[in-house]
Amino acid sequence: MKKFFTVIALIGIFTFGASNLAKAQETPAATETAAQPAPAAQPAVTPAPDAAAPVVAETPGFHQALKQKFIEGGPMFMSFVLISLILGLAIAIERIIYLNLASTNTKKLLKTVETALTDGGVEAAKEVCRGTRGPVASIFYQGLERYNPKDASSIENVEKSIVAYGGVQMGRLETGLSWIALFIALAPMLGFLGTVIGMISAFDAIEVAGDISPTLVASGIKVALITTVAGLIVAMILQVFYNYIVAKIDSIVNEMEDASISMVDIITKYKA
Q: Considering the domain boundaries, does residue 21 fall inside one?
């Protein structure tokens, strides 16, 4: 971080020095220009009307161009595509936050639970799991809840409980994925619907005019292409988030399965 600020300071010093040097070089030139005698007055020449300087059109910014394309694509269909993007991103961001909070250091948790089980018994281990967030700790708690050191068959109950509650936690992790998949499929469909309607409008204009001209059908074809591009872009953006969420869920599920096996081994060792 210190190197970063140092580089910025050096760039600022060089920029400031270069600007001062440029001003210093311009000052003598301006003095010499002022010291020279003024040239003799010459008759004013009226420029010809055709010699006027050409007007340079300003290039619109990104937001202005995006707004213009949104309007050109038709507010009706573009609004549905935009709503799909907003809802899909909202669900995806909520899932990402939830999954990051659900991630747990399973090795550290297993070590803590084993220490608590050895030193304080089942209740101490349950207290550790109760104070730890995440699906792995919840699975451990459900297994310990059904463990009875005096009952030899309680190990089987623990295994069944861990397997059953693991499925429940996996379902919670996958909540919302179906909605993201829906918006991924829906956005291109809305774009293609706008494409079809734009082409119909173009053919209607040809039918009314009784003639085929590029200017006549350009607006309909333009609407068709813009809605298609918008739908595909929305689908691609949501697909990236969807794949990340699926990969995150797979990682957490693998940790849950490994930790569950280790938890059963710890309980068996404690009973022995």
A: no
Could you list the residue range(s) of the whole structural domain that residue 93 is in? 74-272
* Separation of alpha carbons 254 and 176, rounded Å: 20
64: in domain: no
Q: Rounded to the nearest 5°, which phi and psi values hold at 71?
A: -70, -40
d(CA 222, CA 201): 11
Q: Among positive and negative, which fits the CA dihedral 136, 142, 146, 147?
A: positive
Residue range 7-24, pLDDT digits in tens = 344 444 444 444 443 444
Q: Which of 149, 144, 186, 189 is nearest to 165 (CA)?
A: 144
Q: Could you tell me if 109 and 259 are in contact, meaning their C-beta atoms sit under 8 angstroms apart?
A: yes
CA dihedral 198, 201, 207, 210 (to 10 degrees): -80
Q: How many domains does the chain have?
A: 1
| pTM given for the model | 0.68
